Amino acid sequence: MSARKKHVIDWKTVNGAFSKPRRLHLVQGSDGLNRCPILSCDHPGFASRRGCRKHVKTIHAWYYYFDEKPNVAVDTSVISAAANVANGKGSNVPSCSTDNDFARSFSQWLQSSCGGGKSRKQSDISVSRALKFVKFCCDQSAEAEDDVLSSTNSIDYILGCPQLLTNFVDSLDTKWGTGQSGRIAYVTSISDLLDFGKFNSPPSSVLQNFAVTEVYVKRARKCLAKDMRSNWTTDLDIETLESHRSWASLSEVQSVIPFHKERYQSVLEMCMENPDSVKPCDVTFAT
User: Fold this and answer.
1) What is the mean pLDDT of the chain?
2) Backbone torsions φ then ψ of 9, nearest 5 degrees
3) Of 1, 49, 60, 159, whose CB has the highest number of CB atoms within 10 Å?
């Protein structure tokens, strides 16, 4: 039986939604619990504000754009499938079985001193990513995975073909929505697979093909890192942060300063009177 597909309503596209999401102002009760701002919610309260915010985002996501929950039909166009796709995170890349001799030997090599000294968990993740690349190549050539993984020549062919690498990295973005950091991680795992291929002492002709692929691996890393830095510049721009309500205005900053003024003055006096008794956290706060 196939798993039920999760759907998430994109509330900002519903008619009557606020132009910008509401900023939550959580109130802590006398018992120290943070209450859900939705009056009709029966939750008894949360020990942390983070938990309360997560609750609102998960259960009452509509509250960011409406005062009251609107009636929205499930079959309308405001439904977006799978939250991970909506967030641009591709986790549905077709995988390849790691229960075979090739995967086990690759994992053991990654854990060895000369193979990278990775932990068991790190090596398993790298093996899984690398074999997803192998799975992609098998689908491209209509070959069986078991036949490819049991044949050194087939693995050598895959690793020696830059076109397959290029198609896979592009598909991670266009087909599965994987971000730059995720694609860099896949490229790194493919690089580990290349090193493992060289560890098995292939003939010189195969090593020449590996050398060509390594050039494209380096170019892919460089290009993806450049795109990531470019996105950081855009995402952390003041205008972008303001549009997401993640940048405080001058009036908001001025309203917060008086709240910390008393503690700041006490830390300052303590530094002047008895510097040795000042805690590092107080110095960090004052700084």
Assistant:
1) 83
2) -80, 130
3) 159
How many Å apart are CA 10 and CA 194, to the nearest integer? 42
> What is the per-residue pLDDT for 104?
92
Helix 204-235 vs helix 152-159: angle between axes, to the nearest 10 degrees?
A: 50
Q: For the chain, what are the domain ranges?
A: 7-74, 101-236, 250-282
Alpha helices, DSSP H, located in 8-161: 49-59, 83-86, 101-111, 120-141, 145-149, 152-159
- Summarised one tens digit per residue, pLDDT across range 109-155 is 999 988 888 999 999 999 999 999 999 988 877 677 777 888 888 89
Residue 168 pLDDT > 90: yes
Query: Cα angle vertex 142, ends 138, 145, to 5°?
Result: 40
CA 199 to chain centre: 32
DSSP 232: H
| C-alpha–C-alpha distance, residues 193 and 44, integer Å | 51
Rounded to whole angstroms, how far apart are CA atoms 210 and 130? 15
Here the tokens at position 67 are: 């005062």
